[in-house]
Amino acid sequence: MDDKTLPYHLDNTEQNILSHMPSADEITEVSNAMKQLGDPSRLQIFWLLCHCEKCVQEIASLCNMTSPAVSHHLRLLKSSKLITSRREGKEMYYHSADNEIAKVLHHTIEQVAKVTCPEESMPAPKETSTSHPCDEKQVQIIKEIHTLLTENMEKRYTIDELSRRYLLNTSTLKDSFKAVYGMPIATYMKQYRIHEASKMLKDTNLSIAEISAAVGYENQSKFTNAFKNVVGIPPTAYRKSC
Predict the structure, then answer these.
(1) Are residues 29 and 72 both part of a single domain?
(2) Counting CB atoms within 10 angstroms of each CB, which of 24, 28, 55, 102 has the fewest?
(3) SS3 of 7, please?
(4) Boundary-marking domain end, from 51, 85, 119
């Protein structure tokens, strides 16, 4: 800034301050990032992703939110460069960005809320076997089942069919799936189907009937009821709001 635009001459201290003043673009970037955390749900998601990498379904379960709502918050956080994502198969996984703004905001949240960072409170790892109820082989089988279900949403597999196909008894299959993905198969797949349907409603011109069939509902009425139960509004209203 030119001294001539000011009504007085800058002393050395003021000149030094002014020379370090952030540019308008830099201020805007910080302002936009902080603005995104003005929503409590978005703030909760950001804090969670500062400590772990999760997909939409997992975030929805942990934060007690619907998958479409989580997707909306993730889009805004990503546009502000506060989180990053990576693809694994058909699933997208999210984590806080490795940049100065994200780190400072993470620290600020914990200072203001007076909570301890999980990394700081976590005990040193012990050389013992995992406490996870599934062994490594079971986890791999459950992930294969997850892939089968999510890549073939139009088909409804029963627990008995999956049990025979993957040589797991039904109780072990159900318990292991819940241990790995945080919820029963039926609950998980309902949320997954509605999450995928919400993306189709937003990103394609497919009819409601076509989308309901694509995600595994035998008729549009059942799909509409399920969608409203998860999202809170019918699919037609959701598409208009996008």
Answers:
(1) yes
(2) 24
(3) coil
(4) 119
Q: Whole-angstrom distance between the N-terminal and C-terminal Cα of the chain?
A: 43
Helix (H) or strand (E) holding 94: strand 91-96
On whether residue 17 sits in a domain, the answer given is no
Domain count, the chain: 2
Give the pair of three-digit tokens for residue 178. Answer: 């819940």
> Residue 18's pLDDT band (boundaries 50, 70, 90)?
low
R_g of the chain computed on alpha carbons: 24
Contact 80, 86 (CB under 8 A): no
β-bridge mates for residue 85, sequence order: 94
Q: What is the pLDDT of residues 80-97, one digit of tens each?
A: 888 999 888 778 899 988
Please give the model's pTM, rounded to 2 decimal places: 0.49
For CA atoms 130, 133, 138, 139, the dihedral sign is negative
Final residue before a domain boundary, out of 119, 151, 176: 119
Contact 119, 181 (CB under 8 A): no
| Structural domain range at position 204 | 136-236
Which two three-digit tokens encode residue 156?
A: 């409804």
Phi, psi of 7 (to 5 degrees): -80, 0
Q: Residues near 45 by Cβ (< 8 Å), separated by ≥ 6?
A: 59, 63, 70, 73, 74, 77
Give the whole-angstrom CA distance, residue 94 versus residue 16: 40
